[in-house]
Amino acid sequence: MSRSEELFAQARQVIPGGVNSPVRAFNGVGGTPVFFRRGEGAYLFDEDGRRYIDYVGSWGPMIAGHAHPQIVGAVIEAARNGLSFGAPTAAETVLARKVIELLPSIELLRMCSSGTEATMSAIRLARGYTGRDKIVKFEGCYHGHSDSLLVKAGSGMLTLGVPTSPGVPAELAAHTLTLPFNDAAAVEACFAELGGQIAGVIVEPVAGNMNCIPPLPGFLESLRAQCDRHGAVLIFDEVMTGFRVARESAQGLYGIRPDLTTLGKVIGGGMPVGAFGGRRAIMERLAPLGPVYQAGTLSGNPVAMAAGLATLELLSAPGFHARLSELSRALCSGLEDAARAAGVALTTQHVGGMFGLFFTERTVHTYAEATACDVGRFRRFFHGMLAEGVYLAPSAFEAGFVSAAHSDADIDATLAAAQRVFARL
Ligand code: PMP
């Protein structure tokens, strides 16, 4: 029995499913989740001492690599002064200023402790600001686990929401309209019918929770246009894409100015941080300035702020994102070549430091296309790569991430491993 198997058995006795977040349980791929002891740069080391090249990066935050000395140093220094005060600290303003400098659509920013809190608060704010209840989201996009956003699409447009999860009241889910991602015509039709009731549209500008699907030209533009025409709030959920696809995030990359932006992951550098911000007139509706309530005991935590600021400083260096893009490109094109040589149908998609692997022949633009890929083949590929010492996201529907710590040699080693695994698929 491996240490991971032992630890998983123990964990299951006291933690539901043995994990504190479901995908970690390897339900998507089968087998025993790997328990990690430590990370360094591009590598993770498991409890049995095995080394893996890591393409999960804690689901996004570890853009500078694991245990980066500058980030860990900043955290230790902050921790020496105390872990939490529940009162304002200078570091919160420094981090807010840095974010505002990188994302000009944000005039005021509020920190919280997770991406879920950020999106939940942003839609409450959009509702409070507009006095409307309906929210538009897209099929296959994930915005955390708050009630209003845990709603899956029906098949047709304008389908009223049904809860994906038991425990979400149907009356609440009915206010969430789910449309197909990358379908500008569906958005237009939805607004034509219900425009006056829609508080806001929330979208992952590059979808990263159904593998990795970039926006088709014109899709994000159509969201901006419809929100403008009907007085709805456009929310870019950049919890994953923020500072990941480009220094200026997806909004800068695609040249669209959202009204509100939600952030998480990278902004905390591995500590629990989320944030939401945007137009002053909307953000001023938030307590204590306005009546829309939102709060948090640990919001703006000084240790978390230190990690976030150190991370944003590192990724502000010239060439940081060009290097990430080059790593993603080299990895994706190398994997496609290796798959083709082995007669395996594989399509890859990447934007900046995030990528997706689809076991299919064609480019993927929609949830339906993403879910039609060969999941069984992905599972075999995942376990083959794991045995080779390459840690990919344990699900066919999650994006992968590279970090600044990945070297050309790491990519080469990954491709050599993939050649061996494809040959056995
Ligand atoms: N929005 C997006 C786009 C995400 O990818 C995630 C997490 N994967 C969330 C929101 C929720 O963030 P958290 O897990 O920090 O609550």
TrEMBL record:
Pathway the protein acts in: Porphyrin-containing compound metabolism; protoporphyrin-IX biosynthesis; 5-aminolevulinate from L-glutamyl-tRNA(Glu): step 2/2
A single GO molecular function term of this UniProt record: pyridoxal phosphate binding
GO cellular component assignments: cytoplasm
UniProt EC number: 5.4.3.8
Residue numbers of N6-(pyridoxal phosphate)lysine PTMs: K265
Catalytic activity: (S)-4-amino-5-oxopentanoate = 5-aminolevulinate
UniProt record similarity statement: Belongs to the class-III pyridoxal-phosphate-dependent aminotransferase family. HemL subfamily.
Protein name: Glutamate-1-semialdehyde 2,1-aminomutase
Gene that specifies this protein: hemL
